[in-house]
Design brief:
The complex is a heterodimer of chains A (about 425) and B (about 160). With about 425 residues, chain A is α+β, with helices and mostly antiparallel strands. In chain A, about 20% of the residues lie in helices and about 25% in strands. With about 160 residues, chain B is of the alpha+beta class. Chain B starts with 6 loop residues before the first helix and ends in a 7-residue tail after the last strand. The chains are: A alpha+beta (about 425), B alpha+beta (about 160). Chains A and B meet through strand 12, helix 7, helix 9 and helix 10 of A and strand 1, strand 2, helix 3 and strand 8 of B. The structure holds FE2/S2 (inorganic) cluster and fe (ii) ion. The site of FE2/S2 (inorganic) cluster (FES) has 9 residues of chain A, from loops.
């Protein structure tokens, strides 16, 4: 028996507890997160309109994935299927992957090369900009049938996205109010993307990891600098990411973007974990093949790790020499697709490329320091199954959402909620 | 001159390999490989496009040893086991001392609470080499049919 029937038919005097989430969340509160935000189907539907289709830039694909005129990729803007194509004017365009006739997908595969697109259903035809160019039997057959006299092709077509390209990343937006991409990112985040993606990219692998949790749990996890060295013991043991290591956290003004980073510091042998009796301290663990974590300072700035997020669903990863972009896509309230694109530079030396391939083991679905992230969102989603009206505590480092000199804080998680609440109007 | 690499020897090493993983004897898993092996888990799409990166990528046997040490001592994941079901190998090239072969696999993942799902299907693209009386994998490219991995990949395929 579902809650509504129960409520209406048999308990007319009082609603059973927790039958419907109260959906309460005092304005401005960022240190308590009600669990219904990860569960509510209504909220999920609103996110499509208010977040993904709102005044934000959605990461779509890499510029190098649509390198030549006629190249296209299919992707998503939240739930909306999207085609990204490079036309013969050498510009990149993106449009909803939805035929203007009956709504079928225009492009069915993940990408490829095309002169134009023809919907398989009734053969309506589109150019690479998403303009409707042809309607099969538009004038009828032998004087019979055909489209009505008032039908004008130019009035019909899939929704078109605005495009912004930054450091080889292609972003799309449905909003006319979204600021230019540099302004959207802010100086510091833009600078930190540019320090990694500073020359022509090549794709060296593409994998999709299906996460058993709401998209926000994953995006928060990436921003959660507090957990990094507690959940992921591989890093701490090899002194790549100790909380005592020099590094820091940058959060943009909106709160939605962040970058956390660590600097090379091989001298640190901090006892902070051992003193706290935490699981992370494991002095016995040594690598047989130590060259795995041999970091080449290819960016010449001593930064060995930088995890950066752009609201609402992009992660730019530099874990030593393992570079990747991750696209976080909602697939229902309780399911998220995490699209990993492993990248290198077009001019990688064989040694550097090999280092990327080997250090690729650090991240990804089987990553030494990221496999746990594939599961923890599910642990939360399962844990809160009956707790829609309970709240998460996000109070580490106080209540602020600003840059701090430490990673022992949840400031960037609060920043996410600040941006989310602003976009959602809740 | 060691005995010829025959189909029945290939079948035997494949059977022993998956039995080792499915029975949880992961410490013995690296011993199926040569010291200079290449072990890579990838997908059919990546393989077709020639993308080099793997979900797991190890170009030394020591990296395989480290992966098991990490799984045992550092990584956190729910208790789970695999059940590999193998199809029949096809010999693609027989160079005498080395054989290239392809073997289809089906892997179910059994979680601690009993949930059982198809975790992966695909094929092993192997180079088997003589090593004393044994056959070892000088190369094992695990090509998963699907581009999706559910939740995480802890135990190797
Ligand atoms: S739905 Fe596309 S042509 Fe009919
Ligand atoms: Fe993590």
């Amino acid at each position: 028996m579902d809650a509504k029937t129960n409520n209406g038919a048999t308990h007319s005097n009082s609603a059973p507890p927790n039958s419907t989430p109260a959906m309460e969340w005092p304005a401005g509160v960022l240190t308590r997160i009600p669990f219904w935000v990860y569960q509510s189907p209504e909220l999920y539907a609103q996110e499509q309109h208010r977040v993904y289709e709102g005044p934000i830039w959605n990461y779509l694909c890499l510029e190098c994935e649509v390198a030549k005129p006629g190249d296209y990729r299919t992707t998503f803007l939240g739930s909306m299927p999207v085609v990204v194509a490079r036309d013969y004017d050498n510009e990149i365009y993106a449009f909803e992957n939805r035929c203007a006739h009956r709504g079928a997908l225009i492009a069915l595969d993940g990408g490829g090369h095309a002169r134009d697109f023809t919907c398989v259903y009734h053969a309506w035809n589109y150019d690479l900009k998403g303009n409707l160019k042809g309607v099969a039997f538009e004038d009828g057959v032998a004087g019979k049938g055909g489209m009505g006299k008032t039908f004008c092709r130019a009035d019909h077509g899939p929704r078109k996205l605005r495009i912004a390209i930054f450091c080889g990343l292609v972003f799309g937006s449905l909003s006319d109010d979204v600021p230019p991409i540099e302004e959207y990112l802010g100086d510091e985040i833009a600078r930190r993307i540019a320090r990694v993606l500073h020359k022509p990219l090549v794709v060296i692998g593409r994998f999709t990891q299906m996460l058993p949790n709401n998209w926000k749990l994953y995006f928060e996890n990436v921003k959660d600098t507090y957990h990094a060295s507690l959940l992921h013991t591989f890093f701490t043991t090899f002194k790549i990411n100790r909380l005592s290591q020099r590094g820091g956290l940058v959060i943009d003004e909106s709160g939605g973007h962040h970058a956390s980073f660590a600097m090379i510091d091989p001298t640190v042998t901090g006892g902070d974990y051992a003193q706290a009796g935490l699981r992370s301290e494991n002095e016995d663990l040594t690598l047989t093949d130590k060259s795995l974590v041999a970091f080449e300072d290819e960016f010449h700035d001593g930064c060995s790790l930088q995890i950066l997020t752009v609201f609402p669903g992009l992660v730019v990863q530099q874990i030593q020499n393992a570079l990747a972009v991750r696209q976080v896509l909602p697939k229902g309230q309780h399911s998220t697709a995490l699209n990993w694109t492993y990248i290198g530079f077009a001019d990688d030396t064989p040694d550097l490329r090999r280092a990327r391939l080997r250090q690729g083991n650090l991240a990804g679905p089987a990553g030494y320091v990221s496999m746990e992230d594939g599961a923890v969102g599910g642990f939360v989603q399962r844990g809160i199954a009956a707790a829609a009206n309970e709240r998460a505590v996000v109070e580490m480092g106080g209540g602020g959402t600003t840059n701090e000199g430490t990673r022992a804080t949840e400031a960037s998680v609060r920043g996410f909620w600040k941006a989310y609440r602003a976009n959602m109007g809740i | 001159m060691a005995a010829a690499i025959t189909l029945d020897r290939i079948i035997a090493v494949q059977a022993a390999y998956v039995r080792c993983i499915d029975s949880g004897e992961l410490e013995s898993w690296p011993d199926f490989f040569t010291d200079d092996c290449l072990y890579k888990v990838t997908t059919a799409e990546n393989h077709k496009l020639g993308f080099e990166a793997g979900i797991i990528y190890a170009d030394t046997k020591n990296m395989l040893i480290d992966r098991i040490v990490s799984l045992r001592q550092a990584n956190i994941y729910e208790k789970q086991t695999y059940r590999h079901i193998l199809g029949l190998p096809t010999i693609l090239a027989n160079g005498g001392n080395e054989v290239e072969c392809e073997t289809p696999f089906f892997v179910a993942r059994i979680m601690h609470d009993g949930q059982t799902d198809v975790f992966a299907t695909g094929r092993y693209l192997d180079t088997c080499r003589h090593a004393g009386n044994d056959l070892k994998f000088a190369r094992k490219i695990v090509v998963c049919d699907s581009s999706r991995i559910d939740t995480l990949m802890a135990i190797p395929l």
